[in-house]
Amino acid sequence: MFDIKEERTINFSTVIQGNYYTAISPDEIEYQEQALICIDSQGYIAEIIQSGDANYQEVKASASKGDYLLKLDDDQVILPGFIDLHIHAPQWPNAGVALDLPLEDWLNVYTFPLEEKYKSSDFAQKVYEDLVQELLAQGTTTALYFGSVHNSGNLELVKACLKYHQRGFVGKVVMDNPEQTPENYRDQTAAQALTETESFIKAVFELNESETIPATPVITPRFLPSCTDEALLGLGQLAQKYDLPVQSHCSESDWENGYALEHYNKRDAEVLDQFGLLTDKAVMAHGTLLNDADIALFREKEVGLAHCPISNVYFGNAVLPAKQILQNGNKIGLGTDISGGYSPSIYQNIRQAVVSSHQRYEGVDAELDPQVRGTKDDILSMKNAFYLATVGGALSLQLPTGEIKAGCYADLQVVHQNWTAFQDESPQMRFEKLLYQTTKENIDQVMVQGQVVASKEKNNADER
User: Fold this and answer.
1) 245 closest CA partner among 463, 110, 83, 422
2) What is the domain range of residue 430?
3) Do 154 and 113 belong together in one domain?
């Protein structure tokens, strides 16, 4: 008989030796040096052994002998994989295009015509395989995607997530309101939208049957103006029937926010709630114009909020008070909002979240007196933003990930510093420099549930 320690050691599939950072609260980051992160055969972190623990040398020696020890270099560090809570997958070819336009014009002139192309599964396959691989290379291990109206394309997105082992959440977009959507790109009726949504759900379940990292179908009304009441009600019922996540936009802009007030005499959030779309598995994007009552409703319903700081600069009409929402106890994470956001990098959105919070605090109108120019609310720190990109996203999607601790998925990224240190740098200094300076070129390896899904060595081998 093996004792418990030996049995655990034998069951490890990978042991990573190195330094790591992980958020343990919105304001606290844990740093450990030369820890052993022990990953089991199911892709979970089974145990973390610190350098001073009694069994450290034993486990390290056993992993080395069994050839499953990965020892990192001194300039490398392990971070949790990032979670992107809001991506419009079909918009990837337009990233960085026409961001100077008002939201309505941007949608009608550029976005809807592009999304209509995804009725072609061949076109969808090419775009989605590229997108999923790009996001993995950027350190994004979990992604919440808006698809398009057409299931032929949506299923190619699911297949790309499964093929490259990204934890994908994918929604068939519903938009059936003829007054607010183009004739050549919409669901023709609410009944058709609901039927195709349910067909998509069942097709994803079938594709998942032999997968260790399954995809999750998501109920996806585009936003309030694009959907009829019949479609919204039916989608709420499907979310309940299949116990699925919901995603949409909420109070994203003056236009969208005003539509709810004009047509329903209610706030955007209230309308979504009356149709059963605000659940503890719901994630609403942007929310720059949410008021205190909306934020309280989100907290009561345990709704997650996808903060998209780059996109909000262009289309949000305001700066989200992310720090205050976090302090309020709401679930909140980060999203790139491709292609309203031009960058697929969560690192870039971490930085912009901090920048935008500073601008909100200081104010932006130089003609105003300094005493009234800004809000003077607390500023989002880099620790806070890192928490949003990891733990905040995991809580919003109800996933055991986003942290480096026993019991979580081994969703990890290994990055190396890209600067020369001319002085002694504390762990806090190094943490901040990593988050401000890391690019895709510094991400050496990405792992989803224990599987290496992107690496510099793999990419070089592919090029040869």
Assistant:
1) 83
2) 4-79+414-463
3) yes
